[in-house]
Design a protein that fits this description.
Helix content: 40-55%
Mean pLDDT: 94
Strand order of the largest sheet: 1-2-3-4-5-6-7-8
CATH superfamily: Phosphoenolpyruvate-binding domains
Bound molecules: 3-methyl-2-oxobutanoic acid
Structural class: alpha/beta
Number of helices: 12
Strand content: 5-15%
Low-confidence stretches: none
Distance between the termini: 58 Å
Number of domains: 1
Length: 295
């Protein structure tokens, strides 16, 4: 896509909903009833494309460890890496609200550590709010980060940073006891001051109960239709991750297959001498006639 295409998109946005979205705007969606649309991004190229589509939230998830770094889980992702990707995404000058995931062990150790890490994410990562995993156990962290002036998004259900404790990436809250726990956790996060809560991999009825129990919006991923919004990882949505991908993720395109086909055609053209053609070559500088030197 060309620069002029982005300029046209920007002009179109300026004519309609050009307002930059903030954490309070996202929170108010609970009462307005307009569903929240959120997508992950990890670089400026993807962030521009996603923002041009008019989403509400761009999340630099710690899923970057799996999507971008090829890791088997999110645990090794560092604060510096999240900040690096945040700066790159922020250069897209988003209309959407920009959220950054607090990486494993950047907030669990202590409340002061959590405040310091969240502060670094705003100062060095250009984020506008942070997301962290956990319920009542993380309420003090949420309270203190919020008190420092930084909006916090919660994350309940499947918490990928606890993958070893959970014994894998498994659906959560499948019993009455664990459903009661997630409801208590959601209420604790709300009281601590979160402006929204991600619900990952829980049965739809559990998401419905949590959504009804709190005054802040819920944003589901693998949590069914009863949330106040939905989030997908960009590579799942665009068909850039290996098929078939997770059960909950709808593939709206097959850009991975298109990319392989495009590069295959480039390789065929190069090997056949069909690329570059004349229109891909530069003309020589126009010749200038000079008068013969005088003897
Ligand atoms: O890291 C991430 O991308 C996330 C989303 C899946 C919600 O936490």
């Amino acid at each position: 896509m060309s620069e002029s295409h982005y300029a046209a998109e920007a002009a179109e946005k300026a004519g309609s909903a050009s307002k930059k979205l903030t954490a309070p705007d996202i929170r108010s969606r609970k009462s307005t009833g307009t569903p929240i649309v959120a997508v992950t991004a990890y670089d400026v190229l993807m962030a521009r494309l996603i923002d041009a589509a008019g989403v509400d939230i761009v999340l630099v998830g710690d899923s970057l460890g799996m999507v971008f770094q090829g890791l088997s889980n999110t645990l090794p992702v560092t604060l510096d890496e999240v900040c690096y990707h945040g700066r790159a995404v922020a250069r897209a000058k988003l209309h959407a609200h920009l959220v950054g995931d607090m990486p494993f062990m950047s907030y669990q150790v202590s409340v002061p550590q959590a405040v310091e890490s969240a502060g670094k994410m705003l100062k060095e990562g250009a984020f506008e709010s942070v997301k962290l995993e956990g319920g009542a156990d993380m309420a003090e962290q949420v309270r203190s980060i919020t008190r420092s002036g930084i909006p916090v998004m919660g994350h309940l259900g499947l918490q990928p940073q606890s993958v070893h404790l959970l014994g894998g990436f498994k659906v959560q809250a499948r019993t009455a006891e664990t459903t009661a726990k997630i409801l208590a956790d959601a209420r604790a996060l709300e009281q601590a001051g979160v402006y929204a809560i991600v619900l990952e991999a829980v049965p739809p009825d559990v998401a419905r109960q949590v959504t009804g129990a709190v005054t802040v919006p819920t944003i589901g991923i693998g949590a069914g239709p009863h949330c106040n919004g939905q989030i997908l990882v960009c590579t799942d949505l665009l068909g850039l991750s290996p098929a078939p991908g997770p059960k909950f993720a709808k593939r709206y395109a097959e850009l991975g297959a298109d990319a392989v086909e495009a590069v295959r055609r480039f390789a065929t053209d190069v090997r056949a001498g069909a690329f570059p053609a004349d229109e891909h070559a530069y003309a020589a500088a126009p010749s200038t006639s000079r008068s013969a030197p005088k003897s």
